[in-house]
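Tokens for chain A. Residues wanted.
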């Protein structure tokens, strides 16, 4: 992309300027950052009243949470007249039942509609859908 920095391999993560990520609206950004930090084992890089960020220990990607007041959670599956999801997060796992159990322990909910056997649609504490999936070709 024009206007983005490029870096040599081995450039320290903290000094890079090519970060990228996604931002989700949330009623409590700090709480949602803690949830994803515990779910994924990622670090909380920022935690302020209006926003929080989690990122993996390596790489330059992140997930941020931005305060939204009022917040209206999306619904899964889509329903006429209800707040639609505009995106969701996917996480590959190697043990689907264990991963679902861990997410539930942290406060996620399992969605009622499960369209695939190798995927579990989950709802985070703010109601954002995310998927835990097994790569069928790797299983």
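Reply:
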């Amino acid at each position: 992309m024009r206007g983005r920095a490029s870096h040599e391999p081995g450039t320290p993560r903290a000094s890079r300027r090519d970060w990228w990520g996604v931002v989700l609206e949330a009623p409590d950004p700090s709480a949602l950052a803690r949830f994803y930090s515990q779910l994924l084992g990622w670090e909380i890089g920022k935690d302020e009243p209006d926003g929080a960020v989690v990122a993996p220990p390596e790489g330059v990607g992140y997930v941020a949470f931005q305060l939204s007041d009022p917040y209206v959670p999306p619904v899964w599956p889509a329903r006429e007249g209800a707040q639609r999801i505009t995106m969701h997060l996917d996480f590959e796992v190697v043990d689907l039942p264990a991963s679902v159990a861990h997410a539930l322990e942290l406060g996620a909910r399992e969605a009622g509609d499960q369209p695939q056997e190798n995927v579990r649609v989950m709802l985070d504490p703010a109601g954002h859908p995310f998927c835990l999936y097994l790569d069928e070709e790797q299983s």
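The mean pLDDT is 91. The helical segments are 29-40, 96-105.
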